[in-house]
Amino acid sequence: MTDAATPWSGYAPVAAWDEAMDVHGEVREPYRRVYDELERMSREDLTARAEALASTYLAQGVTFDHAGEERPFPLDIVPRVIGSDEWDIISPGVAQRVRTLEAFLADVYGSQRCVTDGVVPRKLIATSQYFYRAVAGVEPANGVRVHVSGIDLVRDSQGIWRVLEDNVRVPSGVSYVLSNRRAMSQMFPELYGAMGIRPVLEYSRRLRAALAKSAPEGVHDPTVVVLTPGVYNSAYYEHSLLARTMGVELVEGRDLETVNGHVFMRTTAGRRRVDVIYRRVDDDFLDPVKFRPNSSLGAPGLINAARLGNVTIANAVGNGVADDKLIYTYMPDLTRYYLGEEPILPNVDTWRLEEPEAREEVLDRLEELVVKPVDGAGGKGVLIGPNASRAQLAEARATIQRDPRGWIAQPVIQLSTVPTLTEDGLEPRHVDLRPFAINDGEEQWVLPGGLTRVALERGQLIVNSSQGGGSKDTWVLGGARQWRRHRAPVEGRIELSGMASVPQSSHPEDVAAGQQQQQQQQQQHRQAPGATEGTSC
Amino acid sequence: MLSRIAESLFWIGRYVERADNTARLLDVHLNVLLEDPWVDEPSANASLLNVMNVSFEPDAVLTQRDVLATLAYDPEQLSSIAGSLMAARENARRAREVISTEVWHSLNTTRMELRRWTGGHRRPHEYFDWVRERTAVTRGLASATTSRDDVWNFLELGRSLERADMIARLLMTRSLDGTTGPDWTTLLRTCSAHEAYLRTVRALVVEERAAEFILIDRYFPRSIAYNLNMAEEFLTRIEGEERNRTLAGRAQLALGRARTTLEYSPVREVLDDLRNQMQAVQQACATASDLIRDRYFLPDATVAWNQEAL
Fold this sequence. Notes:
The structure holds 2 protein chains of 2 kinds.
Chain A: H1 32-39, H2 43-60, E1 63-66, E2 69-72, E3 80-82, H3 84-108, H4 113-116, H5 122-126, E4 148-155, E5 161-167, H6 174-187, H7 189-195, H8 203-213, E6 224-227, H9 236-246, E7 249-251, E8 256-259, E9 262-267, E10 270-273, E11 276-279, H10 283-286, H11 302-307, E12 312-314, H12 325-328, H13 331-339, E13 351-352, H14 356-364, E14 369-373, E15 383-384, H15 390-402, E16 407-411, E17 417-422, E18 425-434, E19 436-439, E20 444-446, E21 451-455, E22 469-472, E23 474-476, H16 479-485, H17 508-511, H18 515-527, H19 531-536
Parallel strand pairs in A: 3-23, 6-7, 6-11, 11-12
Antiparallel strand pairs in A: 1-2, 4-5, 4-19, 8-9, 9-10, 13-16, 14-15, 14-16, 17-18, 18-21, 19-20, 21-22
Chain B: H1 3-35, H2 41-51, H3 64-73, H4 81-94, H5 101-120, H6 124-145, H7 150-172, H8 184-190, H9 194-201, H10 207-216, H11 224-239, H12 250-264, H13 267-272, H14 274-297
């Protein structure tokens, strides 16, 4: 640490929980190897690698649209490491959350038992703008509505993982997990091999399998497609990556048509039946018959086909009712109610502003709280009290009083920090984590790691990429050990040593041993008798 | 395959080939301007733009610089090298999930490096070399990484069609206004055909033999007839089992007629009427392209949706 040139010099945790270093400046166990590796490098080395990383992303087209311009998706060079023991809490916690959300959605669009039993007020569901009567009573083929979910987690100043938000409509970002991993494993091959990081590559295979399982009954070899709004959508890269790695067609609304309650795509060989649509188009745009009549992103008649059970839409329409931020406040109760289990991952404390006492308290302490719209995404409309101006606070007060159903309040959470490369070397920056879960009806599989988003500016707590955030590759330890435990049985191993190898053939004139040498010798021999003879050749 | 994707593939094939051939064609043109002592530069330039079907001010005095700005560097112009490369990449982005990662990388990095060349407008010959190399890399990667299914068929259909069309345009530069045009040795070299010609014909370059070689040689991949034939072949493969037992598709008819006209006419006759003959080839390619679009890319009927219809 005495050498001023190591990237670590000057690194000191701030008020929040730092995942790499404790308050005494000791490196935490999971980060040991990463720390050592980076310490061996100079600052210039590290910056050079970071630049190489950005240029590979540009070449691969891993970009996002920012104000109409294609930019490389920012990936920080320092990985985030999650210990095996922490993952053993996160993974079952996320799976439990998904089971709760599934149960809740099945109930909301079914008999609404949770309302009759008084767990959730009826008003809450009736006033949610994402509750669609159009899909009430639709029973999905294998009972799954949340095929893919992204449960946003944060780590508070005590190091406790908490759920910040559920995303069960069209959670995005998984493509960055896959491409971050590819880029980082090429950048740090030694580290990557030595640390036993759990792989993420099987995501696409799992997703495809889960989608195939959700096909309408009686379809044996279902045709799965990914539905994208089109090439100008900011997540187009992700849509095409998923379609490519699953080996399915990427369709736009105009490629689809519905005939007699069945969905088809237009191909060069005529119409082809579509059984499962993994849609990346919002509910309202899916079907101009049922929702926005002017939408050209979906296909007319889609919802009807789904109602008839001829096509599966994943994720199901109407899921938005479950990831509403007000429903979020009931999630711990719902876990107990549906599953009879204690929630593994706690929520962040939240005030419901439609309750008068809560509202009063919040309005009193607005300057120390965070206020969020209940249906917001991408960090839009979020007001962080301590950073807000007087005028902003006054405006927020008025908005809350006008529409209390539309807002919730939370204490300012000091998100945990992770070392991040900045212009001044490594500095702690706030991060969150979005693990992705795939539900195939039998198992809720959680992708080891997930998308870590990092706020690149000092002290900034909003990490969304639309707000200038970056990402990190997330390494969950414990992969190699597992692999060693499940070693292939002896008889299954291929015995390379006993096999005779087949010689690689080549042009006979090139292999004829020593022939070339002989020719050269001959030439020399011929030239040897005298320079006079040589000139005549 | 999705019609929309097929259309993108078809155009990737065409644009990549167009960039390559436009680079070849401009290279020759710059040489002619340098070497022909009696050249009337503005009319030669105007005539070239006309061959490439690019509009220009009728009274403008066109310099070499103008020609390059339009046909080499203009990113908006789909007849220019830069425009074709950009468009190829945009189409690849749309069809990203069906083309291989290698091909995508190649097209994407080409577009990024393009800025380096189009910024200063200098050293056009190096630029042309670079374009020929990049397009060759892209084609090579496509050939090495694409399954020979409809993805390949549509890419190659576009490529063969464009190549036939562009060689026809190149031969039209023989009869540009204001210049005697490039000689046949130069034209052979431009098509990378000089060595192949010498080996096949075993004679010095004479007009008739050289013309025959570029027009109708059955084995050389840059002769017009060879490419028209390939386009017909790929159309047949795309048709697959749907194929009508007696009638070839209308696109094949257009291409086959253009090819046989060249093959079964005395070469002298074609040479004496080169301009019209070459225009007929381009016309056939355009007709075929339209027919392919109507048959494979357009939806049966566009569904216009409005709520009142309920």
